[in-house]
Protein 1
Amino acid sequence: MKRILLLLIAITVVSGCATTPSKPEPVASSATKESAQPAIPDKPVDVWLMPLEGFPPEYARELEKKFSAELCLNVRATVHAGRTPKMFGPSKQMLGERVRDELKVPLQRLYDVTPKTIFVVLTRDDLNSEDGGTRFLFAMHFPPERLSVVSMARLSDSFFGKKDTPEVTKLRLYKMVKKAIGTQYYAYPRSTDLKSVMYSPVMSLDDLDAVGTDF
C-alpha cells in the first residue's frame, strides 16, 4: 500500500511539471507598435514667419496661431534670426534688399518647404529700400523669392512719442502680415477698396487704421 502511495505521488509531480504553462509570447509595447507603423510625413508649411532679433516673440506666436486658424494654412514661426550690420544702410535704417540677401541661406535651410511656401520676415527695426525713394516703408515684398519683410517700428504709437497702445500695434501688424500673405501666397493684386486689407498705397498710420481686415 505504501509503495502504491509513493508511486501515485511521483506520477502527480511529473504530471504537474509537464502541464506547467509555457511562458507567453511577449506582447509588443505601444511604442514598438508605433515605431513599426510607417511614419506620417509632416504637413508642408504654407507660411514661415521669421522674427529677427529684437522682435517680440509673443507677437510672432500670436500671428502663427491666428493665421493658422483663420486661413486654414500651416503657419509656423521660427526661432529668432540674427541681425547683421550688412542689413543696415548709412541712415541706420534696415534695407529690405539686404535683408533678403542676408537671409537667403537661412531660409533655404527651413524644412517642409514647397514651391508655394512663402516667407515673412518680422523686424522691429525701421525699414526702407536701397533707393530711399520714401522716408520709410511698413513692408517690402519680393515675389521672385516669395519673401516679404514687415517692420513694426512705425506701427507703434510710442515710436512717435505717444502713449503705447499694444493692442492697436498688434492690429496694425496683423494687417500688414495678412497683406503680405495675400500678396505672396494668394497672389492677390493691390486694391483701391479701403475695406480690403490689400488696399494700396498705405502711406501713414491713418491710412492703415482705416484699412479693413479682410481680403
Note: The radius of gyration is 31 Å.
Protein 2
Amino acid sequence: MAETLTLTPAAAKRIAWIAQRQEKPAILRLSVEGGGCSGFQYKFDLGAPAADDAVSETDGVRLVVDPVSLDLVTGSTVDFVESLGGAAFRVENPNAAAGCGCGSSFGI
C-alpha cells in the first residue's frame, strides 16, 4: 500500500506520541463515513488492523484503511499540521472534487 497512501513523518511522530500517552500501539486507522458539509468525512482512531485492511508504515507507525474507505482515499497523504488556528491531522486527497472550509469533509 506504500504507493496508495502516504503517512508523513510529522504525522507518524504525532501518532507515536499520542499512542504512547494512551498506552496503545502506534497504529492510526483512517476511515471515511457519510456526512460532513460535503458528503463524506474522515475519521481517525487508534486501533489494530483487520485482516483485510491496507497497511502503510512510516518510521515504525502504521496507517491502516479498510477496503471500502481505501477506494475513496487512494493516493492520499495524511499529514499533521500545526498552525496558529490549532493542530490537526489533514488528508490531502486527490480524489476529492470538493471540500469544505473546515477541511474535514469532502465530496467526490
Note: The chain is about 20% helix and 45% strand.
Protein 3
Amino acid sequence: MKQPLKDFVCHGVSWAGLMPAFRSLFAGRAAIIMFHEIQREFRLELATGTSISLFEHSLSWLRREGWEIVSLEECLERVSRDDRSRRYAVLTFDDGYRDNVSVALPILERHNAPFLMYVPTGAPTRTLQAWWLGLRELFRSRDDVTIDAMDTRFHCPDFEAKVSALARAAQWVHQDYQRATMLGPTFHKAGVSLSALNEAYFLDEQEIQVLSRHPLVSFGGHTTSHPALKTLDSASARAEMADNKRYLQDLTQRPVRHFAYPYGDPKACGPREENLASDAGFSTAVTTRPEQLCTQHLNQFALPRLFVGGFDSEIAFQARMNGLQQAVHMLLRDPRHLMQLHSSS
C-alpha cells in the first residue's frame, strides 16, 4: 500500500474515532520496534532511515499513551505471564550506525529509554559488504546510474526519482540475496568504496566499547558478515552466529544473549535458523515480521518487529501501534479472523 493511501486510511480511522476499538481488538500487549539510522539529513540520505522528528515523536507518543519502554528481557517476562497492567515497547537498532549514538542517544537519555543494538562483526571491523550503503551512495551522488547486473540504466535527476530508483534496485537484491555480490563491479566502476562507507556510517570498536558501559544499552548479535542465513549451509550459518557472539562478548566484556537475523524475512531465516540461534547460545532472535507480541504462540526465536522509518508519518506510526497494521495483515491472510473477533467482542 502506497504511503499516501496508508495515511488516508489512518486519518480516516482516527477521524471516525475507531482507534480505541482497533487497539482493543488487534493491538498486542507489547511490541518490539526496529530502527536503523536516525538521520539528521533525512532527504540527503534518500529517506532510508528514520527522521529525527519521527523518532522523537515515537518515543514521546509511547510515553504519553502509557507504553512502558523496557528491556527485551523484561518485556518477554511480562508478556509470558500475561501482565495486562501496561503495554510494553522494546527499542532495537540494527547494524551499529554511528548516528544511533550522535543523534539518537541524547533523545533516548531524555526518555530514560533502554535500547538494544544488533551489530554485525563486519561493521566495526570495516569489512562489511554493505551493498545497501553502496547503492544509496550511487543514487544520491549522480543523476545517471547504470547497474550492469540488472542490465538497467536509471535517470534520476531529483529526489523523488532517486528514491524510486534506489527502491527498485534494492528490491532486485531482496528478491534474491545472492545478487548482492553481483553489485561489486558497479561499485568499483563508480569509485564507491564500501570500506569507506563503513568508516563513515558505522561505529568503530572503541566507540562500541565506550557505549557498552552506558546503563541504557545492551548489544545483540547480527552475524559476522550480514548474510541471508538461509542461503548458507548449516556449518557456515552456525559459524556466522557463534563467531559474531564471541566477538561482541570479547569486545564489550558483556554477555550477548539476543540475536537479529539479517534481513529477517522468510527468504532469509526459518526453522533451521531458529535452531541454530538456540544452539549458539542466544536466548532470543528477532525477525522483521511486522506484528506485535501476544501471549499465544510466542516463539522466542522468531519474534516479530515493527519497523519505524522511511516515509512513515506520525499518524501511520500511531495507527500501527494501535493495531491497524495487524488488522490489515489478518484481513489479507484470512478475512474470517476479523469476523470472529468482531462476533466475540
Note: The CA atoms of residues 106 and 192 lie 32 Å apart.
Protein 4
Amino acid sequence: MKRLRLPDLLKGIAIFFMIQVHIMELFIDYPGQSSVVGKISLFLGGPFTAMVFMMVMGYFVAASKKSLRQNMSRGIKIFVLGFLLNIGLNFHLLLKIKYADWPYNSWEYIFGVDILYLAGLSIIILAVIKRLPKKLQLPVSFGLLAAVLLLTGTMNIWLTFPERNYITPFIGGTYSWSYFPLFPWLAYPLAGYFFFFAQNGIQQFISGKKVFTSSAFLLIVFLLMYFSKMGFDTTINLQAYYHHTLKYGIWALGLLIIWSSIFYLIVIKYQASLFEKFLAWMGKNITLIYVVQWLIIGNIATAIFQTQPLNRFPLWLFGILGVTLFVSWLLAKTKIRLA
C-alpha cells in the first residue's frame, strides 16, 4: 500500500507529544505538573496522541487487504507485545518489588492496560467486523462507535468490582491500572474505520455543499471553544481522561477533525519539507519508537519518580528523545518489525 503523507505526519507529531507527556507525568514533581507549562504538556499528550494513533490504525485496518486470519494474527502479536513491554518498562520496579519489598502489586504493572493491549484487541474486533458485507461496514462501524461512547459511563459502573481482577479492566471500569480499556477507547479505531468507508461520500458532500460545510466547520470550532474548559480540565485529569465518557469523546473527536483538517490543507498545499519527512519517518516507525521510549522512561522513572523540578524538563525531554530516535534508527536499519 502506498504510504500517505497525512497519517504519517499526524503520527509523527503524536509520538513527540507522547514522549514529552510521559516525561512530564513520571519525572516532573507535582509543582511542575501543576504549572502552566505542566498543564499544557498534559493537554498536548491527550487527544493529539493516543486518539490519533488509534484512529489512523482503524483507518488502515479498513483499507488493508489482509485476511481475517492475518489481521487476527497481527492483533494477537501486538497484544503479546504489550505484555512483554509492560514487563520490560517496569523491569526495574519489578525487581524492587521482589527484592526490596516495595509495597506494590506487580500484576497491576504487568497487566496495566496500556495502548498496545488496546491496539491488539481493537484489530481483532475490527477484523471480525470486516467479515460483514461491504454495505454494512458504514452503518455498523458508526453504530458501534456511538454505542461505545454512550455505554462507557454504564460500563464503568458495571465493570468496577471491589474484588481485584485482571480481566474486566481490559474491557472497562475505572481501575487505576487500566489506562486504555475498550470502553471508551475502542471508539477511536472505529472512528478511523468508519472514515475509510465514509470518505468518498464526505468529499462529494464537501464539494457540493461548500457553504454548508464551511458553516459546519465554524460551528465545530465554536462548540470546541465553548466547551474548551471541560475538555482541557478532563484531559489534564488523567483518571478522568483515561475513563472519559460521551461528552468528552464528542469534544475530542471534534478537536481531531479540526486538527486533521489543518494538516490536510498543509499537505495538499505544500511539498514535504525536510522536517515533515523527519516527522513522517517517526510516524512510519511509531511502534518501534513507542517501545524504545517506554523501555528507557519506564526504568528511569522507578529511580526518580516525580522528583525532578520543571527546569529539568527540557533536558530530560531532548536527551531521551535523542537516545530514543537514535536507537530506533539503528533498529529500523536492521529491518526489525514489532508488528
Note: The chain has a mean pLDDT of 95.
